[in-house]
Automatic annotation (TrEMBL):
Keywords: Cell membrane, Membrane, Transmembrane, Transmembrane helix, Transport. Pfam families: TauE (PF01925). Belongs to the 4-toluene sulfonate uptake permease (TSUP) (TC 2.A.102) family. The chain crosses the membrane at residues 36-53, 59-76, 83-102, 108-127, 148-170, 182-201, 213-231, 237-255. It is a multi-pass membrane protein. Its main location: membrane. PANTHER family: MEMBRANE TRANSPORTER PROTEIN YDHB-RELATED (PTHR30269:SF23), TRANSMEMBRANE PROTEIN YFCA (PTHR30269). GO terms for cellular component: plasma membrane. This is Probable membrane transporter protein. The keyword Cell membrane applies. It is found in: Cell membrane. The keyword DNA damage does not apply. It comes from Lutibacter flavus.
Length: 256
């Protein structure tokens, strides 16, 4: 009965099993935006299994914006605007490159290159952590490179989190500042991406928006549960959690 009612609303013929995973993906998206970073790959993988690769990006983008709004409101006071200003210009360029190359690049090659890049940078970050150094990379090449990769992978597969996570860890932002800055960054970028999904890739439609209305309660529930979990994690454990989950995410990208 539940399956029948929802399918009538959305005109999508999904099984109860598929609806369960769609809600799970929405719930995890909420927890991710609340601060449990690094699980973006799991979310994208779940949604791709249910809706297909490219189509799932259109299903995700409105829900991501909704979750971003909650995150911006809740963590606004912790935002470090100078890091936002450093990343945004190169991220915008990365998004535009993603729009341009999105239909041509081999999905297999894209996943392999991104996984290798993420794993390489994670290894570098672990090395920095073990050295116990407080040195912060100040090179514009580093910030522009991370921004470009984050923007490109954000448009192609909603997978920018790995690169932005690594950048904010390298900047040694405390937990709340990390989450607050990322909240504003992705709110701006996701709003910027939305017209391309509607008018260029045509992955956002009236039907996909109806589906979003059904799934958004899962996002909201995930956000508030995520906030409670994040409060229990101290800064040092949080840094280790992000590194470990980001590395696991890169492995999932490589083999999914």
């Amino acid at each position: 009965m539940f399956e029948s009612i929802i399918n009538q609303i959305s005109n999508l013929q999904l099984t109860n099993f598929e609806w369960f995973f769609a809600f799970l993906g929405a719930f995890l998206l909420g927890t991710s935006k609340a601060g449990l970073k690094g699980i973006g790959v799991v979310i994208v993988t779940i949604m791709a299994i249910v809706f297909g690769g490219k189509q799932s990006t259109g299903v995700l983008i409105p829900m991501m914006i909704a979750a971003d709004i909650f995150a911006v409101i809740y963590y606004h006071r912790h935002t470090q605007w100078k890091y936002l200003v450093k990343l945004l210009p190169s991220m915008v360029i990365g998004v535009l490159l993603g729009v341009w190359f999105g239909n041509d690049i081999s999905d297999a090659l894209f996943k392999q290159l991104m996984a290798i890049l993420i794993l390489g940078i994670v290894v570098f970050m672990i090395y920095m952590e073990r050295k116990k150094t407080n040195e912060i990379p100040k090179s514009r090449v580093f910030s522009n490179g991370m921004g470009l990769l984050a923007g490109f992978t954000s448009m192609i597969g909603n997978l920018a989190g790995s690169f932005s996570n690594i950048y904010f860890l390298a900047m040694r932002l405390p937990k709340n500042e990390f989450i607050g800055t990322a909240a504003w960054l992705f709110f701006v970028i996701n709003v910027f991406k939305l017209p391309f999904h509607i008018f260029v890739w045509k992955t956002v439609s009236v039907e996909s928006l109806k589906l979003n209305l059904i799934l958004v309660p899962g996002v909201i529930l995930g956000f508030f549960i995520g906030v409670k979990i994040v409060k229990l994690i101290n800064n040092q454990v949080y840094r280790k959690f992000i590194l470990i989950v980001t590395a696991i995410g890169a492995v999932i990208i490589l083999f999914r």
